Amino acid sequence: NSNGPSRNERSFPRDRLSRRKTPMASLTIIPGRPLQGTISVPGDKSITHRAIILTALANGISTVARYCRGEDCLNTMRALQGLGIRIDESDEELCVHGKGLWGLTEPSGPIDCGNSGTGIRLLTGLLAGQDFFTVLSGDESIRRRPMGRIVKPLREMGAVIAGRKGGELAPLAVTGSRLRAITYASPVASAQIKSALLLAALFAEGTTRITEPRLSRDHTERLLKFFGIALQREGTTLLIDGRPSVGWNAAPRLVVPGDLSAAAFFIVGATIVPGSDVTIQQVGINPTRVGLLDVMTRMGADIQLLNRREEAGEPVADIRVKSARLHGVAIGPDLIPQTIDEFPILCVAAAVAEGDTIISGAQELRVKESDRIATVSAELRAMGAQVTERPDGMIVRGLGTAEDNGRLQAVCGHSHGDHRVAMSLAIAGLTASAPTSIDEAACIETSFPDFHHTLLELLGECR
Ligand code: S3P
After folding, report:
1. Rounded CA gap, 305 and 422, in Å?
2. Residue 4 neighbours by CB under 8 Å, 6+ apart
3. 333, 335, 344: which is closest to 264 by C-alpha?
4. What pLDDT is attached to residue 12?
5. Core-most of 84, 204, 227, 447, by most CB within 10 Å?
6. pLDDT at 17 over 60
7. Is 55 a pocket residue for ligand 1 (Cβ < 6 Å)?
8. How does residue 22 score in pLDDT terms, banded at 50, 70 and 90?
């Protein structure tokens, strides 16, 4: 295109004053300006999946406001529509016509969960105890990710699930069956395992007990309680009774808090670009999610939580971040669950900090949308950072000096099809000395369709 960048190759432009409609194939970041202003981020992705599922099982019509419109959640919405639930969709809210606990019906074709581990794992748990047959699959990344971690305990409950490699890999074929409660100690602190089992337990006879080695995000528990469903916690063990006799009522208006995992990119961006001052409104600050805030604060970041309140049983606040000089820290196994999705962007902060950041006990990063230990190490190394990979983490040698945070080199970065890697590289590019481009950036759509636009707003390009 001789008249400038093509639609899919927009370099950092003034041509995007309206919402982007076409996912971009590549993203170009031009550094040199501070991030300033007040923004919102999408509704929490984890909570949106759960809100769609639990309102579909409620008696009556619920409104889910400020939901995440990323592809992952839209796939879960389409899945429930395929399961016979009417969901009216607008940009601002979903209107879910719940049909009660036993109201789902057999879909006419396979369920496509796209890129979403949460979608496929929670839906498999939900569908294990129905009286019909379903097939669940997703994109190439989903078909590589471990499913045995949910298939094994679900089979103990009586579920009939087939899949590639004995049920280790999707596609998964679920022949709904009568489930019984189990006592299960999960070897992994995973909210997806816990939530798949909690959903299956709703349809099982008896009291299911689920123990996890460390507390993972507790959005399912909070939302079940929000709907009045009895659930007990004893340490890291949850107890839930199956087959509630009356079910639960719809939520007239459930407002999803902003996603801390989306806010994380701007929290780090504002910290590492000198002269920045950013406020992110209405962000979820659930204690099982705020590892990034704790780690960044330990690294020297200037983060304030303002206007704390509660929404849909979840704590929220406005987060104000000003630029600050960072130093490296150690992040051990205790901090992994509450920080799990933030390691790609945390490594960007570590790369420009002064001194070493040592991450251990984070082997779960190897089975995310990409192997994030490998992909983040490779990409940051290409930008001039010194990163050593370990089986369960990495050591990032920061480029910073005592006077200032360091700068990365401009390159052409690769997202590896992983939305969080793509957005992390975009923020890394803000510290580089020349424009950075990130290829395969369309994956950002899975969680944060307006990411580029929001970044442009903070850089003063959209005013
Ligand atoms: C999620 C749980 C986490 C997280 C994922 C979302 C959820 O995965 O990484 O992005 O919504 O339950 P694990 O359960 O595999 O730790």
Report:
1. 27
2. none
3. 344
4. 32
5. 447
6. no
7. no
8. low
* pLDDT one-digit tens code per residue, 387-434: 999 999 999 999 998 788 999 999 999 999 999 999 999 999 999 989
φ, ψ for residue 115, nearest 5 deg: -100, 5
In 3D space, the residue among 130, 76, 72, 79 whose CA is nearest the CA of residue 102 turns out to be 130
Enzyme catalytic residues:
341
| Ligand 1 atom having least distance to the Cα of 367 | 15
| 187 token code pair | 């070897």
**How much distance in Å is there from the Cα of 76 to the middle of ligand 1?**
15
**φ and ψ at 354, to 5 degrees?**
-95, 130
The pLDDT value recorded for residue 463 is 52
Instruction: Average the pLDDT over 313-331 and give the result.
Output: 98
Contact (CB, 8 A) for 262 and 426: no
Share of the chain above pLDDT 90, in %: 92
Q: Is 446 in the pocket of ligand 1 (CB under 6 A)?
A: no
- pTM for this structure? 0.94
Quote the CA–CA distance of 332 and 430 in Å, as a whole number: 28
Give nearest CA residue, ligand 1 atom 10: 341
Atom of ligand 1 nearest to the CA of 368: 9
State the average pLDDT for the chain: 94
Strands in 41-197 per DSSP E: 59-65, 86-89, 93-99, 111-112, 133-137, 160-163, 169-175, 179-180, 183-185
- Residue of 67, 113, 217, 222 to mutate, ligand 1, most atoms within 8 A of C-beta: 217
